Structures are given as structure tokens and as C-alpha cells.
Amino acid sequence: MNHRKRIAQFLAAASLVAASGCGLFWPAPPEETADTSVNRLVETTALHARLGEPKLVVVDARPTNDYLAGHIPGAVSASFTAEESMSRGYYVSYGGGVDLFVDANNPIPFQDGPPEQIQAAVRRMGINQDDTVVIYDNGADFHAGRFFNSLARHGFKGMYLLNGGLGKWRAEGLPTSQEVSVVAEGNFVAHKAESGWIASTDDVLNSMFDPNVALVSGLLPSWQWGSYLPYTVPGHIPGTRHVPLAYFFNSDRTWKSPEEVRKILNLFDITPDKTVITYCGGGPLSACMHTTFKYILGYPNVLHYSESYLGWIWDPRELPVDTYHHPDRLRDSAWLRWWAGDRIQILLPVPPALVADVRSQAAYQTEHIPWSVNLPLDDMNQAVSKTTAEWANILGAHGIDARVEVVAADDTVTPSATFLFWLLEYLGQDKVSIASEGITGWRAAGHRMTSEETPIAAPITPIDVAVHPTTFTPSVRPKLRLAAPDAASDHPFSRVWVVSAKEIPDGVPVRTYQHVPWSDNLTAEGRFLTAGELWTLYENAQVPYLSEIVCYSDNVAEATMTYYVLRHLLSFPKVMVYLPAESGLQD
After folding, report:
1. Tens digit of pLDDT for each residue in 393-447?
2. How far apart are CA 284 and CA 33, in angstroms?
3. Do 335 and 318 sit in the same domain of this protein?
4. Do the beta carbons of residue 42 and residue 159 sit within 8 Å?
5. For the domain that residue 117 is a member of, what is the CATH number?
6. Is residue 183 part of a domain?
7. Radius of gyration of the chain (CA)
8. Which end of the chain has fewer beta carbons closer than 10 Å to its terminal beta carbon, N or C?
9. What domain range includes position 490?
10. Domain end residue (candidates: 300, 323, 346)
């Protein structure tokens, strides 16, 4: 082939890739491809134009039966042969390279074996050190990203991902084959797995309270919120930021643009300046998440917790697992008995928690939890009519400031309790929670009740059991409130209203809304449904996870119940309560 013709062919192929938004120089020589490059997506038309070229290897990362049913012509399988995929009548192919890479001596499934095992498996696929490898799955799946991840971690440079996978390939009418490819053994060299890729369980544990680390799970909501039990313990690792893998893909199975994905990630404060640790159930999906962050989004510091949730619950220390997003915003009676109870009062000048009883003054005076203070919220119109300064005076007079966790308590979980929670957050208080079992649960547990009024007075001895008046300094958080129906928003996704009243009230400020009565969040005993049940409730009501949620009721307290559930139990990224400017709570 003459030099001029070779250049013309190269430019033609490059123009196909450029038109599709992929790297202009695909396929780049391995030595020219930095392993932090984000130029790793190849479009179907570009791949089709170059099928059969020397030094191009196409890898089908799907499970065995998928490959056998039809694949891109000439593609090699990264999974078992047909014979190997069956064990005594059971189908055992997993895809993503797991079949051939898995370490049989590791008690945790899905983990890669030693470099020599990876090297032998990859060589059997006919891959050479100077080849260009394009990897695919069905599209919008984890198999291709997982296989890519193993190759990259063992030092290979020249690999790419087929954008949209076989799903998009078939949708465009491109050819497939059922012929099993037979290839000569390659000379791929698996280097020792690079350090700085894998996070251990201790790394995850140590980073949980590091604001510069984002622990990200791409699992389905049913895994995250505990309604699905794949292993022995349902739920997620505490502190997890939940971004399902599906959110990274378009409807045609292609990856969303980095700009679109960053809009989602920014909602959860998963920004490029942070160290990102990805995890899933056992590692395969997490490997795809790692590939996405590092090679498609270009995040500089990304770790893969390859043992993932299995490694966490396998750990002999019996590490904690959550189902609610913020379980620390719910306090049971046993917690209250110590941190706000009799004994702590005589041990500390200022106990770390204070129960705020929101019932009427008459109910409080009849019987209440010892050492609790009364902030009656039986008149909601009066409550919202107060200014922030008036509320600051009331709260300070009852011993509430930034040092103390305020636990809102009613007979059960009620809108009055969630209103106090929201009000305190709105005014800038960080330490706020709700008595999850209510005063009824406290009483049922056999804990002491009293009719004696809690003394509120300045201290006169070093350990003074009175609640001490203090100064509450408000720092209003306007993003927790919508003061006008048409107020502008910087949120990148749609605004959705949720009506929380039991019956649709007159005068809903917008025409389109979803209806989830506040009482639907609770059991018959007045406690919150499980996280999984709550997620299903709002999913069935078509309340989108990424939207800007406005909670509305003609009784604002009912709206705060929805706010609390969505924001703190289910981690919806943007939730507000509608309270018109003229209603009160003015500066």
C-alpha cells in the first residue's frame, strides 16, 4: 500500500471516530496512550469500518451463552468455553473476565488471581502487547468495564470500550456471527497489579469520616436500601453515596457525556478533587465504575474496593451496615436512656443530647421523658408565624445550641416531630434527630416517666443537672425552603412537587404533582417503614431520585415528613419544603 493511500484510509477512519465524539487517534499506539486518558470510547460505525484489520482484537466480555448466541464477527470470548460453562447441570459463566481470571483460592468470589493466571488467559484470547483491543458487552452493563479494568490494572495500555455495546451494534443492523473465533496465542505480559488501584477494607474503614473521600456504590436501589438480600446482611456500607450504574448510560446504551454525568455526581458531592472509592456487591460492577471514573470521566484519584460489600460483611470485626441513609438521625429509646437520661445528667455539665417534646403543654405536664424540654407544636400556624429571631430566643432559652443534639419526640413519629427537625436544620442546627420509637416506645421499654418539670436555669455548681439557657445563633439554610412556586433553581434536573396531605387540598400551587400522604411513610404503630419499603413507595409514586423535590401540604408539618424521609432516610440529593415567604420564619 502506498504512503498516500495509507494516510487517506487513516484519515477516513479518524473522521468516523471524531464525528462520534470519540478519540481522534483511535486506535492509538499503546505507548502513546496514557493510562489516565479519557479517550476510551469507540463508536459502532468506527469499529465496523475496521473489523478484520491486523493488530485489532475485539473482545466479547459477556457470559458464554450470550457470546454463543451471537457476537461481533471475529470477536473472541473473555468467558468459559461452552463445555466449561456447565458444571453438573449448572450454568456457571459470569462474564467480564471473571470466568478466566477468578482466584479459586480466595474465599471472596470475583477476585482476580495472580498475574500469571491473568497473562495465560489473555494470551489465549490472542492478545499481543502491541495490539489494540476493543471490549464490549450488551451495552449499559458492567462486563466490558470489568474486563477493561483487569487489563489496565495489569499494565496493558491499548484498550477501548465499544460505546453502546452489542445492543447498539444490533440496533444499527450491523452483522453478528455465531462462529467461535480461533486465534493464535498472543504475547501479552501481565505486570504485577499496580499499587494505588485497590482499596482494602481498612482503607474504606479509615476513610469513612474523611471529607476528601467519596465512597460510591453503583448497585441497584433494592441492594442499597436493604429490600434485596443477596448475601447474609442487607444494606450498604455506612456513608455510601448511591449512584446506580444505570445513571451513567443513555437510553441507547451509550455512556452519557462527561458533562451530563458530572451534573449527577455533583449532586452527591462526588467531585474530581476527591479520592473516589468504588464498590458493589463483590467487585465486578465496581470495576466498571472504577473504569468509568478513571478512563471516561478522567477523575485522577480512583480506588476500586474489589472485595466490595462481600469483603465488608466477611470481615471478622462485624463491621456496621446501614439500610437508611442517615440512621444516626433516628434515635431509639436505648440510645436516649443513656445520652439524654438520668445518669449522664450527673456526669457532664452539658449532656450531649436533649429531648425536645413537641406535644402540647398539657400532655407534657401530665407525663414526659425525664430531662426533656417542652417545645409545643400543636398550633402550627403560630409556629410558622414566628421570625427566625423569635425562634432563636425560644431555642436558646431551652438550652439548645450547636453543642447539643436535639432529639424531637412525640408520642410516635409525627409531622410535629419532623417539623421541629426541619425547622432546626433550616435555622442551621447540625445535630438533630428524631425519637424513632416515640414516647410510646420509651414507655413500653419500661423507662422512667415523670411529671416533674425539667429545671431550666443557669448553673450554680460544677455539675448542675438543670438545662442551661444558652444563645442559639441561627444560620438560615435557604436551600431547604421554597418560598415561591416559580422561584428560580440552579438544579440541573426537573422540579417535582409531592403533596404530603392525606387528601389533596385546595390551592396546590402547581398543576402537576405526585401524591404520597405523609402517613404512608409509617407503620400502623407510627414508626418509619423500612428503607426498602420507603424507596418502593416513592418509586411507585414516580418521584425521581435526581429531581428537585418540593414537599407541599396545607399543613407544612406534613410536608416536613416527606422532606425527612427523602432527604435523610433515602439520600435524595435535593429536597425542599414549600413555605411561602409571607407565612413567616422571616429574618
Report:
1. 999 999 999 999 999 999 999 999 999 999 999 999 999 999 999 999 999 999 9
2. 24
3. no
4. no
5. 3.40.250.10
6. no
7. 29
8. N
9. 478-583
10. 323
